[in-house]
Structure formats: C-alpha cells, structure tokens
C-alpha cells in the first residue's frame, strides 16, 4: 500500500513538473502550429497525472522490501559499478574490471580467492578478445604508460 | 509466387557462408544465454546488441545474428524449466508442469529432446505462417495514414499488459515514463530543445540500448544479490537419451495443434507467448482426455506448451515487421535493434528493404534447423552450463554488458546512465511496474509523436481526424477493449493458470 502511495506522489510531482515545463517551452521559430513541441508532452503529463491519482486512491499490496542492511548492500553494488566507470579511462580497463568483478563475486557470496581469480581472468580474456580479435580498443590506462 | 521468389532470394542472402556462420554463432550463443540462469531472451539479446553494433556488421548479418540468438534463447530457456523447475521467462512456465516431473522420473533427456522437437515444429510452422501472412498484412497496412498509425501505437500500449495483465494503470504509467524519456532531446520538427537542461549529451536524446541493458541486466544483478541466489539451484541429473520413433510420433499431433494456437496468439495483439503456451497446454489436456497423465510427466504436456510458445514467439514477429508494433518484450528488443540499424519497420520494409527482411526470414528457417541439429546431440554441454554458480556468472555478465555499452561511443557518461537505469529498473520491478512498456515507449515515442503531428497538420488542427476513418475507429475500439477487458476476463484466466500450477505442484510434492 505504502509503496504505491509513495510512487503515486512521486509520479504526480513528475507529471506536474514535466507538464509545467512543456507549457513553458518557447514558441518555435516560424510561429506556432496546430501541434507544437509541447502538445505531446502535455498529453503525457495529463495521462500520467490521472494514473498517479488512481495509484494514490487504489494502491496494490506491497512487495516485501529488503531491510536496511540489504539496501546498503545494493547501494554498494551500484557504487562499485560507478567506481568502475570512474576508473575505466584514467586507470585502465584491466585494473578497473578486476576490481569490479572481484568485488561483485565476493558480494554475491564467493570466497575471496576464487573471486579475485574470476576478476583477473575475465578482465584479461575480455581485454584480449576486444583489442586483438574484435579490434575495439578498450582503455589501457596505466598499463600502457608502464609498457612504454 | 511472388512471395516464393522473395523467399528464394532471402535464402541466397541467408546461405552465404558468412551469414551461415553468424546464424550458427547466434544459435549457440542464444542457447547458452537461454540456458544460463538469470538471463532471459530479452536480456540476452539486449546485451548483444551494442556488441553487434560496435563490430560494424552489415545490417543483414547483424539481424541474422541476433534473430538466431532470439531463436536460440527460446530453445535454451526450456533447459532450466525441465531440470530446475525454474522457468527462464514467463512463457516457459507451462513447460515446468510436465517437464520437471519427467525429469524427476529419470526421463530428463527425453523431455529435453521432445521439447526440442516440439520447439522446432512450432518455430517452423510459425515461420511459414509469417511468410504467408506478413506480405498480406504489409500490403493492407499501406492504407494506414498517420491517424491510423497513432491509434495503432496506442493499441500497442493498451494491449501490452496482455489479457492476463494485473494492473492496467501500471502499464499506462510505464508507457508514459517511456514516452516521456523519448521526448528528451532536440525536437526533430521544430528544433526546440526539450528537457535537455543545456547538457550536450542529452541533445540527441537518451539511447534506448543503454536503457534496455540498464533496466534488464543491471536490475537482474540486484535481484540476484537480494535473493542470495549466488550459489545456484539444485538440478536434476541428466540420463542417457532413449527416444524411440514411437515417442516422437506420439507428440506430433500435439505439436501441430500447439503450433497453430501459439501462432495465432503470437500474431494477435495482447495475447503473446504466455497465453499461447497456456492455451496449447489446456487444449491438449482436453483433447487427450483421460488417457493422458498431465502434470505427472506426460510427454505431450511438454510438447504442447513448447510448440505453442515458440510458434507465438515467431508469430509476434508478424506485427513487429509489418507494422513496427512489437507484441512482446523480446520483439521490442529486436525492434530496438532495427531502429539502431536505421531500419524503420512497417509496411514499407517489405518493399524498400525486401532483401534484408526476406534474408532474416530465411535465416529463421536455417537457424531453427541448426538449433535442432545442435540441441539433440549437444544437449549435455548446454546442461553443464546450469552448474555455473551465478555468483561468478552474474558479475561477468555485468562486465560484458558494461563493455558493450562503453564500446558504443567510448563515453563513461553512458555507463553512468546504465547504472541509473539499473536502479530505476530495480525500483520499478519492486513496485510491479512492467519494464517492457517503458522500453516500448522509448522506441515508439518519436514515431508516435510524428504521426500525431502529421495527422493534425493535414487536418489543420482538427482533433477529430484521429477517429474519422472506419479503420481508425476499429483500432481505437480494440485498444479500449485491450485496456478494459483484462479487468473483466483477467481475474478468471489468472485464477485458472494459478490453479493449473497449484494442482500440478501438489502432485509433484
């Protein structure tokens, strides 16, 4: 119940902001037409607004949501993916991938040693596959610098 | 005769050594993807699109590769239904009912072989149906004007929840979200910026491939972690295959009936593969009557839903190719691929890109034959894949998905978007908001808005043009029925499907 109600409020806000912005679009160059850039978004805003009110009035049963600990865990996974993205270009593909895959395996319940092995293995295999077989260049990063 | 000529031309495209190789690679990859736990067909095809894309394959080869993956994933999906009692996707649910009991009785290999044969018959007949029906529908669709197309797009969303859909409002919400994402970027007609907030990367809009991979693959990773499913599931051991001609002949009529029903369900909007396999199964139970032992491992109970769901999957290609309106999640992903290859599906596809479209149809025939030949002798290898624990598999899949996204434009921003969509996908799934309409909204949004504009420009701003022809009134009527009927029929159908499952489970336990 509560899940759908929160969703309803968020969607209603979204519909209002989205529709309001559409109404504020500057008039297109060459004068207005029957259907301007704002018409379609306005229709969507109305439909979404009505649907979100329905969700507020008649919410479904809630799915079981994870506890705080699990939420932190899931947040950590997303953070690891973000760190991977951040490291990808400056540090290079192989170290970034090794880190990401190892940590993910570990968080999914694997022991540390096999996790790191999977990380290194998949990083090297994918790197070789992409750079030499498919000729798509992945960032080499620090490895390139040290390799001369 | 004309069709036959086109088809022959198609085979000349599909049978070049290069394309034959792509079909074989696709079939193997697809089976692997279908068999691996946690990777459904839609998911698998989505992950491979950016790769096929960045390899710079010619359009026909890329399409042949990915349609073979699609066909292969349907084959692979039943492996987990039969051996783990876990359906890879919703349509595979009915296969569990008799497949798993057969496996428990030590006839797992037979169940897999029978389902391969039934899948082959289903796909084959449905592809023949596609060859016959698609050109007719395409010719008919040439009469559609922009108003009819606008109604048709609405119909696609209205019927997406399917006749068994639970909460239609949530389908509407999902479609709105997708359409709203589609409006981000520079407006094609007027050049106005919409919702870009002066961020340069948003000018071209949000790439739906990134959204698909994020929504499906990344959210799946989060679900796996939440379920603590890292260790994998217990599977039934595989016996040595002992299949006689008699067994095959016994399931032939079943497969034929299932294929026809499945194909019809696939072509019709709003029915889809789940209903196709459910209908074939229940009909088979009625036809066979008392002599059957459905739910306790009757081979016909494996053949019927498998023929049904494979036929429906190919039947769903009919509206996708001829009208540009996909009827299921996986066909939506295939549509995404067409659009990213700069091919606009619709009636013109059959005249403008005849070679391509017939090449793909021919590749479906070839792919299915390869799959049948692959699947019977090599089933043991694919079964082994089920023993890879997800704790190692899912991180590597995530890696492959990320690399694919990164390879599109070498931009880290795309990856951040992918992560964001992953979080969004997780939240939406938790709130029972379906993901497929979101994707479909992103895909169809630009075309839908364009047809609305064309229609209203032609009529000088008169909105009644949208329902002024008999054809468009008919489409609107079906669309409204698609939205309202589930409230009337849905609960009954859902109860029956649940009852069928409960009953069979009580026998198993």
Tell me about this structure.
The complex is a heterodimer of chains A (148) and B (509). The N and C termini of chain A lie far apart (61 Å). Chain A has two domains: 65 residues; 82 residues, no CATH class. With 148 residues, chain A is an all-alpha fold. Chain A contains six helices and no strands. By secondary structure, chain B is mainly alpha-helical. A two-stranded antiparallel ribbon of chain B has the order 1-2. Chain B contains 20 helices and two strands. The chains are: A mainly alpha (148), B mainly alpha (509). Chains A and B meet through helix 1, helix 2, helix 3, helix 4 and helix 5 of A and helix 8, helix 9, helix 17, helix 18 and helix 19 of B. Chain A: Pfam families: TctB.
Topology:
The complex is a heterodimer of chains A (148) and B (509).
Chain A: H1 2-23, H2 39-57, H3 68-91, H4 93-107, H5 112-133, H6 142-146
Chain B: H1 2-14, H2 17-35, H3 41-54, H4 59-84, H5 93-104, H6 108-141, H7 146-158, H8 168-182, E1 185-186, E2 193-194, H9 208-226, H10 245-267, H11 272-288, H12 299-315, H13 317-323, H14 329-340, H15 349-352, H16 354-385, H17 390-409, H18 412-430, H19 436-458, H20 470-508
Antiparallel strand pairs in B: 1-2
């Amino acid at each position: 119940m509560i899940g759908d109600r929160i969703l309803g409020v968020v969607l209603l806000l979204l519909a209002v902001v989205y529709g309001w912005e559409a109404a504020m679009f500057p008039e297109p160059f060459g004068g207005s037409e029957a259907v301007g850039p704002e018409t379609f978004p306005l229709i969507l805003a109305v439909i979404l607004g009505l649907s979100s009110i329905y969700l507020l009035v008649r919410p479904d049963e809630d799915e079981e949501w994870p506890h705080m600990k699990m939420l932190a865990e899931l947040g950590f996974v997303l953070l690891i993916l973000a760190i991977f993205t951040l490291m990808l270009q400056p540090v290079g593909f192989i170290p970034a991938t090794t880190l990401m895959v190892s940590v993910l395996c570990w968080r999914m319940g694997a022991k540390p040693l096999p996790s790191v092995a999977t990380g290194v293995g998949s990083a090297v295999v994918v790197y070789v596959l992409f750079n030499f077989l498919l000729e798509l260049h992945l960032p080499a990063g620090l490895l390139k610098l040290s390799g001369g | 005769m004309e069709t036959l000529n086109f088809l022959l031309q198609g085979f000349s495209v599909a049978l070049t050594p290069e394309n034959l190789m792509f079909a074989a690679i696709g079939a193997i990859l697809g089976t692997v993807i279908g068999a691996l736990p946690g990777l459904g067909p839609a998911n698998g095809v989505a992950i491979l699109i950016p790769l096929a894309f960045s390899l710079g394959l010619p359009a026909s080869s890329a399409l042949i590769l990915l349609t073979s993956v699609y066909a292969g994933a349907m084959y692979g999906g039943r492996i987990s239904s039969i051996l783990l009692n876990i359906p890879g996707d919703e349509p595979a649910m009915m296969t569990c009912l008799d497949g798993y009991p057969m496996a428990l009785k030590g006839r797992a290999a037979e169940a897999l072989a029978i389902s391969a044969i039934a899948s082959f018959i289903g796909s084959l007949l449905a592809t023949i149906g596609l060859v016959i029906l698609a050109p007719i529908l395409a010719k008919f669709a040439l009469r559609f004007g922009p108003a009819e197309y606008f109604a048709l797009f609405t119909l696609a969303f209205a019927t997406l929840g399917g006749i068994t859909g639970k909460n239609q409002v949530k389908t509407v919400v999902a479609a709105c979200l997708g359409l709203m994402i589609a409006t981000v970027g520079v407006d094609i007609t007027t050049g106005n910026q919409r919702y870009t907030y002066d961020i340069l990367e948003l000018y071209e809009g949000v790439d739906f491939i990134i959204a698909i991979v994020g929504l499906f693959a990344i959210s799946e990773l989060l679900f796996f972690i939440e379920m603590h499913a890292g260790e994998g599931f217990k599977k039934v051991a595989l016996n040595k295959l002992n299949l006689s001609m008699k067994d095959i002949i016994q399931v032939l009529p079943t497969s034929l009936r299932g294929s026809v029903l499945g194909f019809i369900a696939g072509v019709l909007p709003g029915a889809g593969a789940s209903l196709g396999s459910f209908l074939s199964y229940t009909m088979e139970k009625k036809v066979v009557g008392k002599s059957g032992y459905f739910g306790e491992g009757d081979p016909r109970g494996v053949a019927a839903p498998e023929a049904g769901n494979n036929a429906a999957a190919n039947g769903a290609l009919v509206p996708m190719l001829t009208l540009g309106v996909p009827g299921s999640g996986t066909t939506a992903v295939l549509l995404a691929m067409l659009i990213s290859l700069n091919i606009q599906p619709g009636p013109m596809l059959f005249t403008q890109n005849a070679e391509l479209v017939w090449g793909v149809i021919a590749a479906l025939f070839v792919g299915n034959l390869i799959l049948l030949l692959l699947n019977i002798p090599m089933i043991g290898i694919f079964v082994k894949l089920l023993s890879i624990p997800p704790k190692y598999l899912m991180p590597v899949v995530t890696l492959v998905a990320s690399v694919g996204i990164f390879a599109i434009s070498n931009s880290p921003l795309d990856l951040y978007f992918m992560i964001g969509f992953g979080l969004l996908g997780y939240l939406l799934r938790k709130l029972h908001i379906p993901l497929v309409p979101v994707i479909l909204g992103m895909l169809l949004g630009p075309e839908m808005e364009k047809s609305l504009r064309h229609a209203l420009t032609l009529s000088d701003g008169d909105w009644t043009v949208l329902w002024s022809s008999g054809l468009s009134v008919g489409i609107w009527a079906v669309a409204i029925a698609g939205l309202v009927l589930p409230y009337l029929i849905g609960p009954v159908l859902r109860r029956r499907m649940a009852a069928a499952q409960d009953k069979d489970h009580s026998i198993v336990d």
